[in-house]
Amino acid sequence: MPEPLSAAALLKALRDEGVAVTEVGAWRTHNRNAKGLWGPVNGTMVHHSVTRGTASTVALCRDGHSTLPGPLCHGVIAKDGRVHLVGYGRTNHAGGGDPGVLAQVVAESYGTRPMAPAMGNANGTDGNARFYGWECENLGDGKDPWPAAQYDAIVRVQAAVCRAHGWSAKSVIGHLEWSADKIDPRGFGMPDLRADVAERLEHPADWNPGTDQSKEDDMPTRVNPKVKQTKNRPQGEWLSVPLSGALVTGPADYSGTVYLRLSGVPDGATIQSRFYETKGGKKSKSGQITEHLGSGGDTFIAVTNAGGHCDSGAALAVEYIVFGGDTHDLVSGQAQLLYWK
């Protein structure tokens, strides 16, 4: 089960991602752990605070109020982009929510947004145990602006947590996507935020948008290893694609497609695929999932990334999962990738 990051690891992940952090009091031991579970963790949740003024927002989120004791989140993301850490462990931010949404977040299996929640605080699953929570300083009226520095910090914070856990951007949700009772955050769309987090996860943690130094005379290197035939592969689990040679080792930018031919996948069965990275033989980062459908006889799928980044010290690989049927064969295929060091 996914164990929560330690307080020190969370702080390091945020700073590595370029987040300006203020540590508020004894935040590392300020929590509601005596009232319930903290972990396993499965995602990170964005809220708006319905407040104005950074100092008062931080104080409220740290101390809570008469009907809801603090901390009310792990960190406050202020208008100027600074993150104020007010608690660590179980915090009173998510409340009850829909277990169906939780299942989709755990599996990272939804499309642009999770299912609409049908349950809320009174009858839902305990979200305080399962999500990191971030209160963003905003009135939540749809009129209060979101400064660029604040939005950039929201993206960086979510990316930092996802990167540290090896999650994709689909582990980021808004409070309104968790609970039928909630409307936050207002003023930007969660699908857009997830897209920005996903873009950030394609780069190193210290990446700053607009600073990529591409040179027109840089010539890419082409790699095209063949897929090794493998029979009787199981359904329902992620399967690495065996290749005759390496794809890309980082640091490197890359673009291209790995073509796969499968046999024995039932007609209409869902297939998901993605690029991923390993360091020291362990998975270190997963890319965005692409979905395909089985066609009964031979099924042909293309796993594509038009602009990815492989982290320093990491090796790029491809994997897929088949939902339905019994076993299938990976018949053949080939990679066609370009990369730039």
What is this entry, summarized?
This protein has about 350 residues and is of the alpha+beta class. The protein has six helices and 20 strands.
Give the arrangement of secondary structure elements:
Elements: H1 7-16, E1 21-23, E2 43-48, H2 54-63, E3 64-65, E4 68-69, E5 75-77, E6 83-85, E7 96-97, H3 99-107, E8 125-126, E9 131-136, H4 148-165, E10 172-174, H5 175-178, H6 190-201, E11 221-223, E12 230-234, E13 239-240, E14 252-263, E15 270-279, E16 282-286, E17 290-293, E18 298-310, E19 315-323, E20 327-340
Parallel strand pairs: 1-6, 2-9, 2-10, 5-9
Antiparallel strand pairs: 3-4, 5-6, 7-8, 11-20, 12-20, 13-19, 14-18, 14-20, 15-16, 15-17, 15-19
Helix pairs in contact: 1-4, 4-6
Structural account:
This protein is α+β, with helices and mostly antiparallel strands and 341 residues long. The chain has two domains: 7-201, 3-Layer(aba) Sandwich (Lysozyme-like); 221-340, Jelly Rolls (Sandwich). 18% of the residues lie in helices and 32% in strands. It contains six helices and 20 strands. It has helices at 7-16, 54-63, 99-107, 148-165, 175-178, 190-201, and strands at 21-23, 43-48, 64-65, 68-69, 75-77, 83-85, 96-97, 125-126, 131-136, 172-174, 221-223, 230-234, 239-240, 252-263, 270-279, 282-286, 290-293, 298-310, 315-323, 327-340. The strands form five sheets. It has a six-stranded mixed beta sheet with strand order 1-6-5-9-2-10, with helices on both faces. α4 (148-165) crosses α6. The radius of gyration is 21 Å and the shape is globular. Mean pLDDT is 94; it is low at 213-217.
